[in-house]
Design goal:
The termini are far apart. The protein has a 7-stranded parallel β-sheet with strand order 3-2-1-4-5-6-7, with helices on both faces. It is globular, with a radius of gyration of 18 Å. It has a single domain, classed as Rossmann fold (3-Layer(aba) Sandwich). Helices cover 47% and strands 15% of the residues. It is of the alpha/beta class. The protein binds nicotinamide-adenine-dinucleotide (NAD). Nicotinamide-adenine-dinucleotide (NAD) binds next to helix 1, helix 5 and helix 7.
Length: 262
């Protein structure tokens, strides 16, 4: 029996990269999946691919920084599949043109700051706000929020991204705390370098090489590495894990280069 048989999952930012890999993995594990993205056409493509494997999936569009859109995504999923068991809050602003404007404290354009908070953090709040009552009705649930290693320490640029992701850690702990006795768990995944198209587009080869050297494993992470962790956190196998930050970074956060420079 697949470990997510009978479960219903929502994956935000599911049009590509880690989200698409996760939507496929949850479906392979038996879940019916709502693939949600601001890019509705690509979300529909991923849902089509999943249905072609014989699993159940729908594609939904929406800017999840908007409360009505988040509410509508949850309602449409519950209407289509009858319940919601798993929420993977994966959507975030990763486009190069946006990130290139996300700079330092003295240069930060306020629109970049606000949009980062609304999308990277606010969408996770809104999705939890509407999914949690559905999970309570079903008697259990697992929420898997996406952060980043950028939230664990300072950097010379991308202040808004790092701060918005740091907020995800607190959101997760508060949701885990208020909903734990209702059978709802919440955890944060903290990825290091995961080779997606978005990362290839906004990081230079030089930086990618450096990150590869800072990774302790002989290889760097792929989207399916994260997808398998989400499936574990979504399943009953992780029933005693809640409120946690779980790094998946090939050990990048476990060392510092004081002597060798890499
Ligand atoms: N790839 C990495 O190395 C890495 C590292 C750390 C954290 N992450 C996090 O993993 C997640 C996935 O990243 P990815 O590399 O697969 O990038 P990606 O660009 O493929 O995924 C992000 C998705 O979010 C969608 N999105 C953006 N704004 C949205 C909105 N307002 N409403 C709905 N959808 C929206 C995008 O269209 C995109 O499909 C992100 O949360 C990212 O911050 C990635």
């Amino acid at each position: 029996m697949p470990r997510l048989a009978g479960k219903v999952a929502i994956v935000t930012g599911g049009a590509g990269g880690i989200g698409a890999a996760t939507a496929h993995e949850l479906a392979r594990e038996g879940a019916a999946v709502a693939v949600v993205d601001i890019d509705e056409a690509k979300a529909n493509d991923v849902a089509d691919e999943i249905r072609a494997t014989g699993a159940r999936a729908i594609g939904l569009g929406g800017d999840l920084a908007d409360e009505d859109a988040a509410k509508s995504v949850v309602q449409s999923t519950a209407k289509e599949f009858g319940r919601i068991d798993v929420l993977h809050n994966n959507a975030a602003l990763t486009a190069s043109d946006f990130l290139s404007r996300d700079t330092t404290v003295s240069e930060m354009p306020i629109d970049v700051w606000q949009r980062s908070m609304e999308v990277n953090l606010g969408s996770q709040l809104l999705m939890c706000k509407y999914a949690v009552p559905e999970m309570r009705r079903g008697g259990s649930g697992s929420i898997v929020n996406m952060s980043s290693g950028a939230a664990l320490s300072g950097d010379r640029t991308r202040l808004a991204y790092g701060v918005s992701k740091a907020g995800v850690h607190a959101l997760t702990m508060y949701v885990a705390t208020s909903e734990g006795k209702q059978g709802i768990r919440a955890n944060t995944i903290v990825p290091g370098l995961i080779l997606t198209d978005a990362v290839r587009a906004h990081l230079s080869d030089n930086i990618l090489d450096g990150l590869g050297r800072a990774t302790l494993t002989p290889y760097v992470g792929q989207p399916h590495d994260v997808a398998e962790l989400v499936a574990f956190l979504a399943s009953e196998q992780s029933r005693y894990i809640t409120g946690q930050m779980i790094a998946i970074d090939g050990g990048m956060s476990a060392h510092v280069s004081m002597n060798t420079g890499d």
